[in-house]
């Protein structure tokens, strides 16, 4: 057990920058007093906020840089002007050098992924990284991946996603053999994209040591918690995630309107306000903020660009847990075994390259 | 104005068959007394149900066949044994022969699409059909397409979807120039699949006469009603639709649980029960049941396989509206003009084939 968790925080990322990120770091610190922060960014933006947060200030070291990655730059642009010197790069580099255990950034996703790949490198056997999200379900939580790290996935990529997601669920949910489902447009074997069908066949036939393949699942099975891990290509996965967020907002808005329409409804709301508070917490998208980059030699957490302080804290908490329970090491062990099964199943079928 | 709307109903489709489809037809008939039904299917299943629904019986003609398409057959299998003689084929054929104005089926989607294409043929200029869904939003409703008719879409397909969806929204929502958005994983131009980017470029540069191109939208923009028409490839569209349905169920279930937890919440529920009823209606997925097949020479409505009578009635209502307001003709007119714009923009860019 480590005596502290060292978090490298990109204080410049996201839509709001230090003004929101630092208060988020402070919230997380109250929950985990064993955190130490390395804060990367412009002192002109950081110091005034930090002065108002003495507890955070006492546990933080600021590394000044004037270069910040813009939210709308292409990854290649960001690498060109931001390598070696941007707050995002320096935060990642702290993990690389062993000065921090995890990096958390709310910055430009593409740039963060490009810099993390460039600096930390991919784990052996993984060609494309993934972003895994924790998705609240009727049964608890599921891991859903990829939610946007890369677009287009062939059968080999999908099998890698199954292995990585299975390993993450295994450790995070403490289940011996989590169930893994492939997202498709129909449970019948006949439907869906060629690569999804082929991946399904290999997953069904392979003897994976750390997860059970459930079969195809559909979009409405995610929220039901039908499987512990939902595997999908990044374009569809990102759209599923954002659509679910949008639907939750939409229904919350219907609910608010309904509870305001008549005096009886308003009175009912007063009686049930504790229940509504519980419901609101359950529906709070900030609580599941934080995507985990999988496939890299290091723990990188992406916080949502539009997050407020509470959302930022949730992302930092996730990074904290990943380090505290040594998830990366454990995920690595699971991955090493099951990736071999996947690779040999792929080459036996002639689908690998 | 027609004096009646003739609906060809596949009485054998869906998970429940005639026992649910005929009561659904009866509900729709009470709302639209000018409907006349042609019911296709096995008399042994139809007649006992029809005998209990005298009003429906009086407005229906039964066409007996013993062949029904199974829900899990491949389209090719279904075509092999079901062509010329299954309830699904005969219902489509009634539209082809001009004996009915619209066909409604809750059967196997792939088989319905294959038979409709085979028999009705595609409209000139359209290579791949689409299924359009009506999506309830905070502003009203949007057309979302394709939600699963075909998987994989190149830039030409996406532009056809924009033109077809734009035409449908124009007529259905009575808007002169509906706004059209392309579903992508980020609003920045730099992200997303190659074909989505290319389609975005063409839509932005083309002078389409019947819709305005808004730009990229993300999954959470659908429920906000940011655009009248959301265009996406069928795999991602189907996953978005089902994920939204799943999220709505999930939140309804949280709400039920919250309202049952304490006596105060239960009391509050009693006061607000009218508000909850309104909310339940608003969230009722049955009310937006019914996908419209676009791109064919005929109106084909796909009802959800698991629909109950109320859901079936919603799908029949949609078919009714499509005929009553001559949507197909009007959509055809819009399409003819804007498809030409799309085609010339595509060939100018060298992207068409």
Q: How would you explain this protein's 3D organization?
A:
With 353 residues, chain A is of the alpha/beta class. The first copy, chain A, has two domains: 1-120, 3-Layer(aba) Sandwich (Isopropylmalate Dehydrogenase); 132-286 and 327-353, Isopropylmalate Dehydrogenase, CATH 3.40.718.10. Helices cover 50% and strands 16% of the residues of chain A. The first copy, chain A, has helices at residues 18-31, 43-51, 54-58, 75-82, 87-96, 109-120, 155-172, 194-205, 219-224, 234-258, 263-271, 273-283, 309-324, 327-349; strands at 5-10, 35-41, 60-64, 102-105, 130-136, 141-145, 179-183, 212-217, 229-231, 291-294, 299-302. An eleven-stranded mixed β-sheet of chain A has the order 3-2-1-4-11-10-5-6-9-7-8, with helices on both faces. In chain A, strand 1 (5-10), helix 1 (18-31) and strand 2 (35-41) form a beta-alpha-beta unit. In chain A, helix 1 crosses helix 13 (309-324) and helix 7 runs antiparallel to helix 14 (327-349). The longest helix of chain A has 25 residues, at 234-258. The two termini of chain A are 41 Å apart. The mean pLDDT of chain A is 88. The interface between A and B is large, with 66 and 67 residues.
Notable features of this structure?
11-stranded mixed sheet, Isopropylmalate Dehydrogenase, 14 helices, 2 domains, homodimer, alpha/beta
């Amino acid at each position: 057990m480590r005596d502290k968790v060292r978090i490298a925080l990109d204080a410049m990322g996201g839509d709001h920058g230090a003004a929101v990120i630092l208060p988020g770091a402070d919230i997380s610190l109250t929950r985990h007093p064993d955190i130490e922060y390395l804060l990367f960014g412009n002192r002109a933006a950081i110091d005034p906020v930090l002065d108002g947060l003495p507890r955070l200030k006492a546990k933080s070291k600021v590394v000044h840089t004037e270069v910040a990655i813009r939210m709308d730059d292409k990854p290649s642009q960001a690498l060109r002007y931001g390598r070696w010197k941007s707050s995002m790069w320096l935060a990642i580099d702290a993990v690389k050098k062993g000065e921090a255990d995890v990096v958390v950034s709310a910055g430009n996703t593409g740039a963060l992924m490009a810099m993390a790949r460039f600096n930390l490198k991919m784990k052996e056997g993984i060609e494309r990284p993934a972003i895994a999200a924790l998705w609240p379900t009727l049964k608890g939580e599921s891991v859903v991946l990829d939610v946007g790290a890369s677009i287009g996935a062939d059968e080999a990529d999908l099998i890698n996603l199954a292995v990585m997601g299975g390993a993450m669920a295994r450790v995070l949910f403490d289940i011996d053999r989590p169930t893994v489902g492939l997202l498709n447009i129909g449970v019948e074997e006949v439907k869906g994209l060629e690569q999804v069908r082929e991946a399904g066949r290999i997953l069904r036939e392979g003897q994976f040591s750390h997860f059970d393949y459930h079969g195809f699942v559909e979009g409405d099975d995610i929220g039901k918690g039908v499987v512990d891990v939902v595997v999908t290509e990044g374009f569809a996965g990102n759209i599923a995630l954002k659509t679910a967020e949008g639907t939750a907002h939409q229904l919350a808005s219907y609910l608010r309107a309904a509870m305001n329409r008549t005096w009886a409804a308003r009175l009912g709301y007063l009686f049930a306000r504790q229940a509504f508070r519980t419901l609101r917490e359950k529906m709070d998208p900030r609580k599941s903020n934080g995507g985990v980059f999988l496939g890299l030699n290091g723990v990188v957490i992406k916080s949502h660009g539009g997050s407020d302080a509470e959302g930022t804290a949730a992302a930092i908490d996730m990074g904290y847990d990943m380090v505290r329970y040594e998830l990366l090491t454990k995920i690595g062990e699971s991955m090493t075994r099951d990736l071999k099964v996947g690779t040999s199943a792929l080459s036996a079928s002639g689908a690998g390259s």
